[in-house]
Amino acid sequence: MATVLPQHGEAHQQWRRLLNRYFTAKRMAALRPQIEAMADELIDAMLEKGQPADLKAAFAFPLPVWVICEILGVPDSDRDKFAYWSDTLLSMTRYTREEIGKAQAEFGAYLAGHVAAKRLNPGDDLLSELITYTDAEGRPLPDGILVAAGQGLLVAGHETTANMIAKMMAMLLSDRSRWEALLANPSLVRSASEEALRLDVNAGFGMLRYIDADFEIGDTVVPAGTTVVCSMAAANRDEKAFERADEMDLARTPNPHLSFGAGAHSCLGQALARTELQVVLDVLLRRLPTLKLAVEPAELKRVEGLLVGGLQGLPAAW
Ligand code: HEM
Questions:
Q1: How confident is the model at residue 54 (pLDDT cuts 50, 70, 90)?
Q2: Residue 97 — very low, low, confident or very high, per pLDDT cuts 50/70/90?
Q3: What's the distance, CA 167 to chain centroid?
Q4: What's the gap in Å between 3 CA and the centre of ligand 1?
Q5: What is the per-residue pLDDT across 238-287, written as a single tens digit (0 to 9) for each?
Q6: 144, exposed or middle or buried, with CB in 10 Å at 0-12, 13-18, 19+?
Q7: In this model, does residue 305 exceed pLDDT 90?
Q8: Assigned domain for 117 exists
Q9: Separation of 261 CA from ligand 1 center, angstroms?
């Protein structure tokens, strides 16, 4: 079942409105205690295994996939499968074409079965909410769209958030005075996580935009019909928009960064991503105040072969 979500125009806007009914600040606030409990559970398991640990593999990678499973009403026992599918689908070089094709087919079949089960036995999750939706003519959403919604959320919301959690922690621990500033003043958690989003130099490929009318940037005219790749990392360091743009200022407000994109396609899951980043900091500050990198910052290695940029691992001790 390979239905793709609408990408353009009114159909895309309708689709966004539908999903936005779920991704509200109120709903995200209600999810917060559950995300906290998941973070605590992952830390318990990490502590049990002992230090040093890879904070990315043990914590940053599983947390967002657990959250997406929760949102889709997927049982805890299937979380590992979701993690594997997500890793495979977003990889450009790490898996063979056959492995990617197989993962796609398995994931699609799993979600089709899951949607059918939800139709019979709805819960308090996003898919159940979409299942009960009917349009003005009373028609429900077809299964293909529900499956595509599940696939889209995993692909858009897992690696992005997992990598951002690891990169945020690397930024805060590579100069430990930043971590200490947060320990001394946890009310900085919100602005600190926004600043980490702004300073992410490794945001990935960039935003693709099709230019439908001639467009001037300085002396250059970009002609209509061009497809451009916009670098959010460059925009986020624009000295005209941010004072001391190269500095990490944990208290920076306002912080109009573009890490969630802009306009008609801006990140639909940004309220969720923000909640996850803040919960991560709250829980790690509370549980592991002595957290530190277990290697020199220069030894941290970038991941290659994924559409979303990130670190291969984050060796940490406490
Ligand atoms: C730190 C984590 C995240 C970052 C940095 C991020 C970033 C982005 C960016 C840059 C875009 C494209 C914006 C554009 O083209 O203007 C996007 C789109 C999107 N994101 Fe996120 N995202 C994150 C987490 C999430 C999460 C957790 C979800 C949902 C579970 C999600 C769902 C989506 C969806 C559905 C779109 C497509 C929106 C559309 O085309 O209308 N994202 N995200």
A1: very high
A2: confident
A3: 12
A4: 19
A5: 999 999 999 999 999 999 999 999 888 899 999 999 999 999 999 999 99
A6: middle
A7: no
A8: yes
A9: 8
Q: What secondary structure does DSSP assign to 50-72, as a single string?
A: -SSEEHIIIIITHHHHHHHHHHH
Number of domains in the chain: 1
| Assigned domain for 40 exists | yes
What are 307's two structure tokens? 């559409």
Neighbours of 124 (CB within 10 A): 9
Ligand 1 contact via 161 beta carbon (within 6 Å): yes
Instruction: Tell me which residue range forms the domain holding 160.
Output: 9-200+235-317
Residues in contact with 42: Cβ distance below 8 Å, sequence separation at least 6, in sequence order: 58, 59, 62, 63, 66
Query: What is the pTM (predicted TM-score) of this model?
Result: 0.94
Ligand 1 centroid vs 210 CA: distance in angstroms? 18
Backbone CA torsion sign across 268, 112, 5, 236: positive
Q: Which residue of 17, 267, 268, 308 sits with most ligand 1 atoms within 8 Å of its CB, as the best mutation to test the pocket?
A: 267
CATH of the domain at 52: 1.10.630.10
Q: Is residue 228 part of a domain?
A: no
- Cα separation, 195 vs 168, in Å, equals 9
Q: Is residue 1 part of a domain?
A: no
